[in-house]
Automatic annotation (TrEMBL):
Keyword Isomerase part of the UniProt annotation: no
Name of the protein in its database record: O-antigen ligase like membrane protein
UniProt keyword annotations, A-Z: Membrane, Transmembrane, Transmembrane helix
Transmembrane segments: 7-23, 29-50, 62-85, 97-115, 136-159, 179-203, 212-229, 235-251, 258-276, 350-370, 382-412
Protein species of origin: Alkalibacterium gilvum
């Protein structure tokens, strides 16, 4: 019981680190200092566990070293490019530093998981915490949507910008709310990652136990609903991942009945939403917004929405000099928005520091994914889906620096767990040898 209570603290911490928020009554800087400072103190006190974590990387040291070296080069380039070009635009660097900071927090979280559950697969445990946090985030959204007074209380309780509060008043965006406040593209990306993790855990459980993980099926459906709340792009990508995952399951296990159950459940969810929206005008506006790409696909054979129309206008071919060397701007000096008004993930780093460094950025997650793939068929499938997810999302906006810290954690978790298994095997073997020798004497 005591251990369960202690692990509850790890669960709550994972919820906060993945979907952070700040109270409106206190300074954000003070809250960051207290929360993250406490975690750093914890890391210093338990520093020996971190050396153990990284010891397991010896098996795939080359992949990890290459990825970290390239990641460091990107950080250095983000600092020196604005100086060399005399633009002094360090917004790209500040964005990366924030993700590096959260990477450190994720590593501390991974260390806590290892301390509390040393016998478990760290990669899988992190995935389980991720899907659980996402499910609870979506449940919290449902509560906020269902209880209007609580929604108003919560928005006054946490720190939120005036612009985001304005967006939440729009009928099509009223569902983009969670305990972190306004929940947009980054949250729908995390919901998609949660769907990906649930698919992996379902396949992993069936591969080892020959049964379906009902818990992860439920988590996957909640993440899918979250995508319907926070962003249509995530909903489309999640459905693609589920289709590919289902095809993999049928191909490997020859079990079609589970796919019938899955499709039936998805259809029922959409039917329920279709019925419920008839009783609420605000919900009807959101429903029309959510279903727009599907209606467009049925009517015209193409996925067209107001967002995609605006997105295609943001695609353009820069001049040769910009393609080769970039312009040194990540945000516009005129209005503070993204440079040249583009949301396209592939274009933002290209405009900032050219094709060479842009390519380097995408080599990092590719290298980590190849390392995670190892010789395990399911890991290879997971790495394949991860890169598909990254590629599709980058067409819409930049998510590569959201994904890299997660892949680093999965990489560390995968090979630290293997180190644990090897040590356990060696210890058990030594113990058996001692016992055998004792009996012989």
């Amino acid at each position: 019981m005591v251990e369960k209570i202690k692990y509850l603290g790890v669960i709550l911490l994972s919820h906060y680190l993945l979907y952070p928020f700040y109270l409106d009554a206190f300074s954000n800087s003070l809250q960051q200092l207290l929360i993250f400072g406490s975690l750093l103190i914890y890391a210093i006190i338990n520093k020996e566990i971190f050396s153990t974590l990284f010891k397991g990387l010896r098996e795939k040291k080359m992949y990890f070293t290459i990825a970290m070296l390239l990641f460091s080069i990107i950080l250095l380039a983000s600092f020196f490019i604005p100086i060399i070009y005399q633009t002094m635009d360090f917004s790209y660097l500040s964005s990366q530093i924030r993700h590096v900071f959260y990477l450190l927090m994720y590593i501390i979280l991974l260390a806590m998981i290892r301390i509390k559950k040393p016998a478990q697969n760290l990669k899988n445990e992190f995935m389980k915490l991720f899907t659980l946090a996402t499910r609870n985030y979506v449940v919290f959204t449902m509560v906020l949507l269902a209880v209007g007074p609580f929604r108003e209380f919560w928005l006054n309780f946490i720190h939120e910008t005036p612009r985001r509060l304005e967006l939440l008043e729009m009928p099509i965006y009223f569902a983009r709310i969670g305990w972190a406040g306004y929940s947009g593209f980054s949250v729908t990306f995390f919901c998609t990652i949660a769907v990906l993790f649930s698919i992996y855990l379902i396949l992993h459980t069936y591969e080892h136990q020959k049964k379906i993980s009902i818990k992860e099926v439920i988590n996957m459906f909640f993440a899918l609903i979250g995508n319907a709340f926070y962003g249509r792009s995530g909903l489309l990508v999640s459905l693609i991942l589920i289709i590919i995952g289902a095809a993999y399951f049928v191909f490997i296990n020859r079990k079609i009945k589970y796919i019938v159950y899955l499709v039936s459940a998805i259809v029922i969810i959409f039917m329920l939403l279709t019925i419920i929206k008839e009783f609420n005008s605000t919900l009807a506006s959101w429903y029309s917004w959510m279903m727009q790409p599907f209606v467009s696909l049925i009517e015209s054979g193409r996925i067209e929405t107001s967002s995609t129309d605006a997105l295609w206008e943001m695609w353009f071919i820069p001049d040769d000099s910009t393609i080769l060397f970039g312009d040194g701007f990540y945000t516009s000096p005129l209005n503070g928005r993204y440079y040249m008004g583009t949301d396209v993930g592939f274009l933002r780093p290209l405009l900032f520091f050219g094709s060479t460094f842009m390519t380097t950025i995408y080599i990092v997650p590719a290298t980590l994914s190849i390392g995670i793939a190892s010789k395990n068929r399911l890991n290879k499938f997971f790495a394949f889906l991860s890169l598909i997810t990254l590629f599709i999302f980058e067409i819409k906006a930049e998510v590569v620096f959201l994904l890299i810290p997660i892949l680093i954690i999965l990489f560390i978790g995968e090979f630290s767990s293997r180190e644990d298994k090897e040590n356990t095997y060696k210890n058990n073997r030594s113990y058996k040898t001692i016992v055998t020798e004792g009996i012989a004497r």
